[in-house]
Amino acid sequence: MRIKKRGGKILEIDPLKIKVAIAKAAKTKGESKLEEATALYSKILDLAHFLSLSPVPEVEAIQDVMEKALLESIHQRTAKAYILHTR
Fold first, then answer.
1. Structurally, how many domains does the chain consist of?
2. How far is C-alpha 28 from the geometric centre of its chain's CA atoms?
3. Torsional sign, CA 12, 48, 24, 32
4. Distances (CA, A) of 65 to 22, 30, 51, 57
5. pTM
6. Which of 33, 37, 61, 86 is least buried, going by the fewest C-beta atoms within 10 A?
7. pLDDT of residue 2
8. For the segment 43-87, what is each residue's pLDDT rounded down to a tens digit?
9. Residue bearing the bigger pLDDT, 39 or 5
10. Which distant-in-sequence residues (6+ apart) come within 8 Å of 8 by Cβ?
11. pLDDT tens column, 27-55
């Protein structure tokens, strides 16, 4: 999957960046580990596909999907930490 960065550059999505962002938010709340971030990453990709995002979604669209996936998971405090960090 490719993503359009804020500066307009189009790159392949970096799974590690998403996993690390989730893991960092989780670490601040003591909820999750990198292994769980990997499972959430898979859910994020599935959700992005289900929502039929544009062929090359912008960073904000992926962040919205990440928020939705986190809010639908059992990691509510991680979701809040992630949302506060990205806004």
1. 1
2. 16
3. negative
4. 12, 22, 9, 11
5. 0.74
6. 33
7. 85
8. 888 887 777 777 888 888 888 888 888 888 877 788 888 888 777
9. 5
10. none
11. 877 766 666 777 788 888 888 777 777 78
Q: Which amino acid is at 77?
A: R
Alpha-carbon dihedral of residues 38, 55, 81, 74, nearest 10 degrees? Answer: -50
Cα–Cα distance for residue pair 20/67, rounded to 1 Å: 14
The C-alpha atoms of residue 69 and residue 5 are separated, in whole angstroms, by 21
Q: Helical H runs in 30-75? A: 34-50, 59-72
Residue 65 sits in which domain range? 2-86
Phi/psi for 65 (5° steps) reads -65, -40
Cα 5–1–64 angle (5° rounding)? Answer: 60
pLDDT of residue 7: 93
Show the tokens assigned to 17.
Answer: 């960046």
